[in-house]
Amino acid sequence: MAKKPAAQLQLVAAAHTQRGAAGVTDDIVDAITTAIVERRLMPGTKLVEQQIADIFEVSRTVVRQALNQLSRDRLVTLEPARGAFVATPSIDEARQVFQVRRLVEAGMIRQLAAQITDKQVDQLRLHLRDERQAVVRSDVSGRTRLLADFHVVLARQLGNEVLAELIADLLSRSQLIALMYQSSHSAEHSQDEHVGIVDALAKRDARTAARLMEQHIEAVERNLRLDPRTPDLASVLRPKH
């Protein structure tokens, strides 16, 4: 078998390296996004490049690429001479995000009520069961993820991945200010509201389902609370083995 020219081998090696770096960049983006959504990284938290590089065993260049992507997603703020910080949206921006959520999710739930299947209702019931178990266990990160995922699951049941991605983005942005801290009581209240929404869907009652969804999002907005805790980056971002 003929050997590949040295130049071609270098190109192949470079391609593999590039794909590997891109994969690690995605891992860092996913880790930070998840930590924000699960309230393990609070708004205003400084994201130290070198510390993140040490955690993921990569260069600061790779970390910088991840932070730039998170900045484009508005989850991270990059400040000249100061570094990267978890974004701290203004109250006005938060209200705008919740306004969009009410408009989008009310329409989404009406459409779903018109076409939801019994199997999909059963899937939602299983999700509600997992939510309830996480609330009872006081599993803060678990219940936060499940309560947020509920809305994405609804979008996916419509078979609309673009809508699911939009909902996920809106949830991540609203988490920054709305889910800084959630008591067991407010988490339980949200879970109860999810049960009511699914009950309306099971009856194919689009009007009630949409009304309950709007009320649910309004309730989350009313419960805005900030928690100034500053976590240790290594403890929340270190990959789990």
UniProtKB/TrEMBL annotation:
Recorded superkingdom: Bacteria
One Gene Ontology MF term: DNA-binding transcription factor activity
Entries under InterPro entries matching the protein: GntR_C, TF_FadR/GntR_C, Tscrpt_reg_HTH_GntR, WH-like_DNA-bd_sf, WH_DNA-bd_sf
Limits of the HTH gntR-type domain: 22-89
Transmembrane segments: none
Annotated keywords: DNA-binding, Transcription, Transcription regulation
Entries under Pfam families matching the protein: FCD (PF07729), GntR (PF00392)
Protein name in the entry: GntR family transcriptional regulator
